[in-house]
Amino acid sequence: MTELAPCPICGSPYTYEFESLLVCPECGHEWQAAKEMTIEKGFVVKDTNGNILVDGDTVVTIKNLPVKGTSQSIKAGTKVKNIRLVDSDHNIDCKIDGFGAMVLKSEFVKKA
């Protein structure tokens, strides 16, 4: 029997596999086993709701975000596709239509 990773939300060691998902019986959190590799590296990025983000996800901004060097801002509800995660203060690299390449903080986005 292989050791499964503990729940990334509550830390429960009683996780189990259900189809292609890992499930925590204590808090009910479900996640894909592929995301487990991100957790093992120790580099975990979570959105504003606590969902774990991975490279290639689509996120939505939750508030208007001012852009340095311009009078425009990224409006709340802007969908950002195909994100890339980096280990820094602004941990999301992305391309936003009308703005180009940007870096965002994960605390201002939610998973779409």
Provide a compact summary of the structure.
With 112 residues, this protein is mainly β.
- What level of helicity do the residues show? under 10%
In total, the number of strands is: 13
**Major sheet characteristics:** 3 strands, antiparallel
Unreliable segments (pLDDT under 50, ≥5 consecutive)?
A: 35-40
Quote the average pLDDT.
86
Shape: elongated
Number of discrete helical segments: 1
Query: Order of strands across the widest beta sheet?
Result: 1-2-3
Radius of gyration: 16 Å
Strand proportion, as a percent range, falls in 25-35%
Order of helices and strands: EEEHEEEEEEEEEE
Oligomerization state of this entry? Answer: single chain
Task: Give the distance, in angstroms, between the N- and C-terminal Cα atoms.
Answer: 35 Å
Query: What structural class do the secondary elements suggest?
Result: mainly beta
